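ugh ok fine here u go
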Amino acid sequence: MSNKNRKRSIDGVSGAGEGSSKKAKPHAFFSSFAARKEEASLPPTQRATVRVEAPPTVEHYLHLDPFASPGSDNGGSTSSSKIKIAMYDLDGTLIQPKSGARFPKDATDWKWWDATVKAKLAEVHKEQFHLVIISNQNLKEKPLKAWRSKVSLICADVQLPIRVLAATAKDQYRKPGIGLYELLHDLYEAKGLEIDIENSFYVGDAAGRAGDHNDTDRKFAVNAGLTFYTPEQYFKGSTKNPAYLPFKGLDATAELAAMDDSPLVTPTSTPLIPASTKEIVIFVGYPASGKTSFYNKYFKPHGYIHVNQDTLKTREKCLAVVREEMTFGANGCVVDNTNRDKSTRAYYVAMAKQLHVPVRCFYFTASYQLAKHNNFYRAYVASDVPAAEKRSILPETAFIGFKNALQEPDETEGFDEIRRVNFKFQGTEEDRRLWSRWMS
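structure:
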């Protein structure tokens, strides 16, 4: 999990806290001169909440310093280099709106989720755990500003060393992704310490029960390898086994098992690459369904030209390149677009007939959920994606648009052959482990 860039982004603290040698920056909630005067008037305990440097889409705060207790590098807990972490979701787990509304109205609209919460946090702190809040906060600037102020109030009320990490965008830091956990891991590693994963845990209300708004908290715990509790179990001591529903989204572990048992391409009775490579090949499939990787592995070594509208920008330019290659070149062309409907594919079929060259279709069968999973993996998780295949995250609309407009290719379109390509994950055992995480 270690990453030097991540370490550089989290080691510095804006103000008192983790002993940064950098010049202290203004308090996270009080950036102007007038606001700093307001900060000075606050009780010292409330001013103890400081902002820690973090990536642009992460809010990172520390209230008091768990490493500052005298006599130990790990908060006075033990001489061990392993640190137990008690991790919590925020909304619906530690706090709830005191107004009774679904969402808080302002920075002061909160109360503890249950009367037992503060005592339980104090208890686990005495048991030598470090306290960490890990939260999703995809908020616009005005509500995010109110949220920052609320964090200060919450921390001041609990009066324990506590760290807050929040993801403010839909990226690798957002649960169920474990980017925030990896930041935490790297922070401790930089201090020569290790998170005691076996004795650490995560508490969250998005557990995937009937009536829960989501299942991302439990997925986060599974991805990170943490013991998981619901708030009812942890704060109220409920011994009733939660009635968890199946996780939403792609079960990548089951998907891996299924793809290991399936052929890459069907039918298997004809060569993948014919003796004569003077042909037009049409790829059909979702974004992130493996089309470009398939081209690079199987067609590029045989000299096929790669035609892609993401690069050429318009269909007219794609058609012009294909026509020129089929007329003057010696190689085949792979049209690596989504080519989701018959009318789009008909342009290339008509050109093949006019130029008297074969035209084949390769239909990539990856599902909507699988393609979305790959989209997130290659943008945020994968470390071994070739530069030619590296992509930025694609919006949800790219997948919905393809799903709604897809017309599966068939023989009536005039193809000389239609092959179905099953997605098969390629990578090391470590790559497979990372790909198997819950991504959404």
